[in-house]
Design brief:
alpha+beta, Phosphorylase Kinase, domain 1, Aminoglycoside 3'-phosphotransferase, Chain: A, domain 2, 2 domains
Length: 320
Protein backbone atom coordinates (compact mmCIF):
# COMPACT_ATOMS: atom_id res chain seq x y z
CA UNK A 1 0.00 0.00 0.00
CA UNK A 2 1.13 3.59 -0.63
CA UNK A 3 -0.07 7.02 -1.72
CA UNK A 4 0.70 8.28 -5.22
CA UNK A 5 -2.49 10.21 -5.98
CA UNK A 6 -3.72 13.04 -3.77
CA UNK A 7 -7.48 13.40 -3.37
CA UNK A 8 -9.08 16.74 -2.49
CA UNK A 9 -11.69 17.03 0.26
CA UNK A 10 -14.39 17.94 -2.26
CA UNK A 11 -13.52 14.99 -4.51
CA UNK A 12 -13.55 12.59 -1.56
CA UNK A 13 -16.88 13.86 -0.22
CA UNK A 14 -18.56 13.54 -3.61
CA UNK A 15 -17.10 10.06 -4.05
CA UNK A 16 -18.23 8.81 -0.64
CA UNK A 17 -21.72 10.10 -1.29
CA UNK A 18 -22.05 7.47 -4.02
CA UNK A 19 -21.80 4.81 -1.29
CA UNK A 20 -24.12 4.06 1.63
CA UNK A 21 -21.36 4.17 4.26
CA UNK A 22 -22.19 7.41 6.05
CA UNK A 23 -20.26 10.67 6.15
CA UNK A 24 -16.47 10.96 6.14
CA UNK A 25 -14.91 11.73 9.51
CA UNK A 26 -11.29 11.29 8.39
CA UNK A 27 -9.17 9.92 5.55
CA UNK A 28 -5.54 9.07 6.23
CA UNK A 29 -3.04 8.07 3.55
CA UNK A 30 -1.28 4.75 4.10
CA UNK A 31 2.41 4.97 3.23
CA UNK A 32 3.44 1.29 3.32
CA UNK A 33 4.01 -0.60 0.07
CA UNK A 34 4.68 0.45 -3.51
CA UNK A 35 1.71 -0.40 -5.71
CA UNK A 36 -1.56 1.51 -5.20
CA UNK A 37 -2.78 4.65 -3.43
CA UNK A 38 -4.56 3.68 -0.23
CA UNK A 39 -6.47 5.59 2.41
CA UNK A 40 -7.88 4.52 5.75
CA UNK A 41 -11.41 5.90 5.81
CA UNK A 42 -13.31 6.59 9.01
CA UNK A 43 -16.99 7.30 8.39
CA UNK A 44 -20.03 7.53 10.60
CA UNK A 45 -20.65 3.87 9.70
CA UNK A 46 -17.18 2.57 10.60
CA UNK A 47 -13.75 2.02 9.05
CA UNK A 48 -12.95 1.15 5.42
CA UNK A 49 -10.01 1.03 3.01
CA UNK A 50 -10.15 3.16 -0.14
CA UNK A 51 -7.86 2.03 -2.96
CA UNK A 52 -6.95 3.94 -6.12
CA UNK A 53 -5.37 1.54 -8.60
CA UNK A 54 -2.02 2.57 -10.07
CA UNK A 55 1.08 1.27 -11.82
CA UNK A 56 1.08 -2.50 -12.43
CA UNK A 57 -2.62 -3.02 -11.76
CA UNK A 58 -4.45 -3.25 -15.09
CA UNK A 59 -8.06 -2.11 -15.25
CA UNK A 60 -9.13 -5.32 -16.98
CA UNK A 61 -7.81 -7.34 -13.98
CA UNK A 62 -9.95 -5.55 -11.41
CA UNK A 63 -13.04 -7.79 -11.80
CA UNK A 64 -10.78 -10.79 -11.09
CA UNK A 65 -9.56 -9.28 -7.80
CA UNK A 66 -13.02 -8.17 -6.71
CA UNK A 67 -14.60 -11.51 -7.61
CA UNK A 68 -11.84 -13.47 -5.88
CA UNK A 69 -12.26 -11.66 -2.56
CA UNK A 70 -15.99 -12.30 -2.69
CA UNK A 71 -15.45 -15.97 -3.55
CA UNK A 72 -12.90 -16.57 -0.80
CA UNK A 73 -15.11 -14.93 1.83
CA UNK A 74 -18.01 -17.16 0.77
CA UNK A 75 -15.67 -20.14 1.35
CA UNK A 76 -14.94 -18.98 4.90
CA UNK A 77 -11.60 -17.19 4.41
CA UNK A 78 -11.37 -13.88 6.29
CA UNK A 79 -10.42 -11.20 3.78
CA UNK A 80 -11.65 -7.70 2.84
CA UNK A 81 -15.00 -7.50 1.12
CA UNK A 82 -15.68 -4.99 -1.69
CA UNK A 83 -18.34 -2.44 -0.76
CA UNK A 84 -20.90 -1.78 -3.50
CA UNK A 85 -21.87 1.69 -4.62
CA UNK A 86 -25.49 2.72 -4.24
CA UNK A 87 -25.84 1.66 -7.88
CA UNK A 88 -24.66 -1.86 -7.07
CA UNK A 89 -21.38 -1.52 -8.97
CA UNK A 90 -18.16 -2.55 -7.24
CA UNK A 91 -15.76 -0.20 -9.05
CA UNK A 92 -15.81 3.56 -9.50
CA UNK A 93 -13.44 6.38 -10.50
CA UNK A 94 -11.73 8.93 -8.26
CA UNK A 95 -9.11 11.54 -9.19
CA UNK A 96 -8.71 9.96 -12.60
CA UNK A 97 -8.06 6.47 -11.20
CA UNK A 98 -10.21 3.40 -10.93
CA UNK A 99 -11.14 3.02 -7.27
CA UNK A 100 -12.87 0.70 -4.81
CA UNK A 101 -13.75 0.61 -1.14
CA UNK A 102 -13.33 -2.58 0.89
CA UNK A 103 -14.17 -3.48 4.46
CA UNK A 104 -11.64 -2.97 7.24
CA UNK A 105 -10.23 -5.99 9.11
CA UNK A 106 -9.28 -5.97 12.78
CA UNK A 107 -5.72 -6.90 13.69
CA UNK A 108 -2.27 -5.82 12.59
CA UNK A 109 0.77 -7.15 10.80
CA UNK A 110 3.64 -8.54 12.85
CA UNK A 111 7.12 -7.03 12.66
CA UNK A 112 8.94 -10.02 14.13
CA UNK A 113 7.06 -13.21 13.27
CA UNK A 114 7.35 -16.18 15.60
CA UNK A 115 7.24 -19.83 14.59
CA UNK A 116 3.59 -19.88 15.70
CA UNK A 117 2.84 -16.99 13.33
CA UNK A 118 4.57 -18.89 10.52
CA UNK A 119 2.57 -22.03 11.21
CA UNK A 120 -0.68 -20.03 11.10
CA UNK A 121 0.36 -18.45 7.78
CA UNK A 122 1.13 -21.88 6.33
CA UNK A 123 -2.31 -23.10 7.34
CA UNK A 124 -4.03 -20.00 5.95
CA UNK A 125 -2.15 -20.23 2.66
CA UNK A 126 -3.24 -23.83 2.15
CA UNK A 127 -6.81 -22.84 3.05
CA UNK A 128 -6.65 -20.06 0.45
CA UNK A 129 -5.45 -22.52 -2.19
CA UNK A 130 -8.25 -24.93 -1.33
CA UNK A 131 -10.90 -22.19 -1.23
CA UNK A 132 -9.81 -20.78 -4.59
CA UNK A 133 -9.61 -24.13 -6.37
CA UNK A 134 -13.08 -23.76 -7.90
CA UNK A 135 -12.89 -20.01 -8.58
CA UNK A 136 -13.92 -19.47 -12.20
CA UNK A 137 -11.76 -16.42 -12.85
CA UNK A 138 -8.31 -16.74 -14.37
CA UNK A 139 -5.40 -14.31 -14.39
CA UNK A 140 -1.94 -15.04 -15.80
CA UNK A 141 0.93 -14.29 -13.42
CA UNK A 142 2.68 -11.46 -15.26
CA UNK A 143 5.45 -11.56 -12.65
CA UNK A 144 6.36 -15.21 -13.05
CA UNK A 145 9.50 -16.35 -14.85
CA UNK A 146 8.52 -14.88 -18.24
CA UNK A 147 8.16 -11.46 -16.64
CA UNK A 148 11.54 -11.34 -14.93
CA UNK A 149 13.71 -10.60 -17.96
CA UNK A 150 11.81 -7.38 -18.85
CA UNK A 151 12.35 -6.22 -15.25
CA UNK A 152 16.03 -7.15 -15.44
CA UNK A 153 16.40 -5.21 -18.68
CA UNK A 154 14.52 -2.24 -17.25
CA UNK A 155 17.01 -2.00 -14.40
CA UNK A 156 19.93 -2.75 -16.72
CA UNK A 157 23.44 -1.87 -15.67
CA UNK A 158 22.02 0.60 -13.14
CA UNK A 159 21.75 -2.46 -10.91
CA UNK A 160 25.44 -1.97 -10.21
CA UNK A 161 24.60 1.42 -8.65
CA UNK A 162 22.86 -0.52 -5.90
CA UNK A 163 25.61 -3.15 -5.55
CA UNK A 164 28.70 -3.56 -7.73
CA UNK A 165 28.45 -6.80 -9.69
CA UNK A 166 24.70 -7.15 -9.19
CA UNK A 167 23.98 -6.97 -12.93
CA UNK A 168 26.16 -9.96 -13.84
CA UNK A 169 25.03 -12.07 -10.89
CA UNK A 170 21.37 -11.41 -11.66
CA UNK A 171 21.83 -12.27 -15.33
CA UNK A 172 23.44 -15.60 -14.45
CA UNK A 173 20.70 -16.57 -11.97
CA UNK A 174 17.96 -15.49 -14.37
CA UNK A 175 19.36 -17.56 -17.22
CA UNK A 176 19.43 -20.64 -14.99
CA UNK A 177 15.85 -20.16 -13.84
CA UNK A 178 14.59 -19.61 -17.37
CA UNK A 179 15.93 -23.00 -18.43
CA UNK A 180 14.88 -24.97 -15.33
CA UNK A 181 11.55 -23.44 -14.29
CA UNK A 182 8.83 -26.13 -13.92
CA UNK A 183 5.53 -25.67 -15.74
CA UNK A 184 3.60 -28.78 -14.64
CA UNK A 185 3.18 -28.39 -10.87
CA UNK A 186 -0.27 -28.41 -9.22
CA UNK A 187 -1.70 -24.94 -9.62
CA UNK A 188 -4.66 -22.66 -9.11
CA UNK A 189 -5.30 -19.28 -7.53
CA UNK A 190 -2.37 -17.94 -5.48
CA UNK A 191 -2.03 -14.78 -3.40
CA UNK A 192 1.51 -14.10 -4.71
CA UNK A 193 2.26 -11.35 -2.16
CA UNK A 194 1.50 -12.78 1.29
CA UNK A 195 4.05 -10.72 3.21
CA UNK A 196 3.79 -9.95 6.94
CA UNK A 197 2.10 -6.61 6.23
CA UNK A 198 -0.63 -8.47 4.31
CA UNK A 199 -1.54 -10.82 7.16
CA UNK A 200 -3.32 -9.54 10.26
CA UNK A 201 -3.03 -11.07 13.71
CA UNK A 202 -4.65 -10.45 17.05
CA UNK A 203 -1.98 -11.82 19.35
CA UNK A 204 -0.92 -15.08 17.72
CA UNK A 205 -4.35 -15.67 16.18
CA UNK A 206 -4.49 -14.96 12.46
CA UNK A 207 -7.41 -12.58 11.90
CA UNK A 208 -7.34 -12.02 8.14
CA UNK A 209 -5.51 -11.78 4.80
CA UNK A 210 -5.44 -8.58 2.76
CA UNK A 211 -4.10 -7.03 -0.47
CA UNK A 212 -5.08 -9.48 -3.21
CA UNK A 213 -3.90 -7.23 -6.06
CA UNK A 214 -1.14 -9.61 -7.18
CA UNK A 215 -3.40 -12.67 -6.99
CA UNK A 216 -3.27 -14.84 -10.11
CA UNK A 217 -3.09 -18.43 -11.31
CA UNK A 218 0.22 -20.19 -10.77
CA UNK A 219 1.82 -23.11 -8.95
CA UNK A 220 0.66 -23.43 -5.35
CA UNK A 221 4.16 -24.44 -4.24
CA UNK A 222 5.51 -21.19 -5.73
CA UNK A 223 3.12 -19.28 -3.44
CA UNK A 224 4.53 -21.25 -0.53
CA UNK A 225 8.07 -20.38 -1.66
CA UNK A 226 7.13 -16.68 -1.63
CA UNK A 227 5.97 -17.07 1.97
CA UNK A 228 9.11 -18.92 3.05
CA UNK A 229 11.11 -15.98 1.69
CA UNK A 230 8.89 -13.37 3.33
CA UNK A 231 8.45 -14.94 6.78
CA UNK A 232 11.34 -17.26 7.61
CA UNK A 233 14.45 -15.10 7.30
CA UNK A 234 15.94 -13.02 10.12
CA UNK A 235 17.09 -9.43 9.79
CA UNK A 236 20.71 -10.54 9.39
CA UNK A 237 19.73 -12.56 6.30
CA UNK A 238 19.90 -15.98 7.96
CA UNK A 239 17.20 -18.57 7.34
CA UNK A 240 15.32 -19.61 10.50
CA UNK A 241 14.85 -23.36 10.20
CA UNK A 242 12.36 -23.46 13.09
CA UNK A 243 10.10 -20.97 11.33
CA UNK A 244 10.47 -22.82 8.03
CA UNK A 245 9.53 -26.12 9.66
CA UNK A 246 6.50 -24.49 11.29
CA UNK A 247 5.26 -22.93 8.04
CA UNK A 248 5.70 -26.12 6.04
CA UNK A 249 4.00 -28.18 8.76
CA UNK A 250 1.12 -25.72 8.89
CA UNK A 251 0.67 -25.85 5.13
CA UNK A 252 0.85 -29.63 4.96
CA UNK A 253 -1.66 -30.02 7.79
CA UNK A 254 -4.21 -28.72 5.24
CA UNK A 255 -2.71 -29.73 1.89
CA UNK A 256 0.16 -32.21 1.44
CA UNK A 257 2.87 -31.33 -1.05
CA UNK A 258 3.45 -33.81 -3.85
CA UNK A 259 6.87 -35.30 -4.76
CA UNK A 260 7.38 -32.93 -7.72
CA UNK A 261 6.58 -29.90 -5.53
CA UNK A 262 9.01 -31.04 -2.86
CA UNK A 263 11.77 -31.57 -5.42
CA UNK A 264 11.15 -28.15 -6.97
CA UNK A 265 11.00 -26.20 -3.69
CA UNK A 266 14.63 -24.91 -3.68
CA UNK A 267 14.27 -23.71 -7.28
CA UNK A 268 10.92 -22.07 -6.52
CA UNK A 269 12.41 -20.29 -3.50
CA UNK A 270 15.27 -19.03 -5.67
CA UNK A 271 12.80 -17.75 -8.26
CA UNK A 272 10.64 -16.06 -5.64
CA UNK A 273 13.69 -14.27 -4.24
CA UNK A 274 14.75 -13.10 -7.69
CA UNK A 275 11.23 -11.88 -8.51
CA UNK A 276 11.05 -9.63 -5.46
CA UNK A 277 14.65 -8.48 -5.80
CA UNK A 278 13.91 -7.38 -9.38
CA UNK A 279 10.66 -5.54 -8.65
CA UNK A 280 12.23 -3.83 -5.67
CA UNK A 281 15.26 -2.94 -7.76
CA UNK A 282 13.12 -1.32 -10.47
CA UNK A 283 11.09 0.56 -7.84
CA UNK A 284 14.26 1.65 -6.01
CA UNK A 285 15.66 3.12 -9.21
CA UNK A 286 12.37 4.73 -10.32
CA UNK A 287 10.51 6.18 -7.31
CA UNK A 288 8.17 8.93 -8.63
CA UNK A 289 9.12 12.42 -7.47
CA UNK A 290 6.98 13.58 -4.55
CA UNK A 291 5.37 10.19 -3.89
CA UNK A 292 4.53 9.36 -0.29
CA UNK A 293 6.22 5.99 -0.45
CA UNK A 294 9.05 4.09 1.20
CA UNK A 295 10.80 1.97 -1.45
CA UNK A 296 11.84 -1.42 -0.13
CA UNK A 297 15.47 -2.48 -0.14
CA UNK A 298 16.26 -4.84 -3.05
CA UNK A 299 19.40 -6.06 -1.27
CA UNK A 300 17.25 -7.78 1.35
CA UNK A 301 16.26 -10.22 -1.38
CA UNK A 302 19.77 -10.34 -2.78
CA UNK A 303 20.88 -11.75 0.59
CA UNK A 304 18.04 -14.30 0.54
CA UNK A 305 18.92 -15.26 -3.01
CA UNK A 306 22.48 -16.05 -1.95
CA UNK A 307 21.09 -18.49 0.63
CA UNK A 308 18.87 -20.17 -1.98
CA UNK A 309 21.78 -20.62 -4.36
CA UNK A 310 23.29 -22.94 -1.75
CA UNK A 311 20.05 -24.89 -1.22
CA UNK A 312 20.02 -28.42 -2.59
CA UNK A 313 16.80 -29.97 -1.31
CA UNK A 314 13.60 -29.23 0.60
CA UNK A 315 15.39 -30.43 3.73
CA UNK A 316 17.34 -27.16 3.64
CA UNK A 317 14.02 -25.38 4.27
CA UNK A 318 12.79 -27.61 7.10
CA UNK A 319 10.86 -30.28 5.24
CA UNK A 320 11.72 -33.67 6.70
Amino acid sequence: MAVYTDVSDDELTAFINTYAIGDVLSAKGIAEGVENSNYLLHTTEGFYILTLYEKRVREEDLPFFIGLMQHLAQKGLTCPQPVPLRSGEMLSTLAGRKAAIVTFLDGMGVKRPSARHCQAVGEALAQLHAAGADFKGHRVNALSVAGWRPLFEQAGHRADEVLPGLYDMTREVLEGLETQWPDDLPSGVIHADLFPDNVFFIGERLSGLIDFYFACNDAWAYDLAICLNAWCFEQDGSYNMTKGQAMLAGYQSIRALGPAEIEALPLLCRGAALRFMLTRLVDWLNVPAGALVRPKDPLEYFRKLRFHLRGESARDYGLS
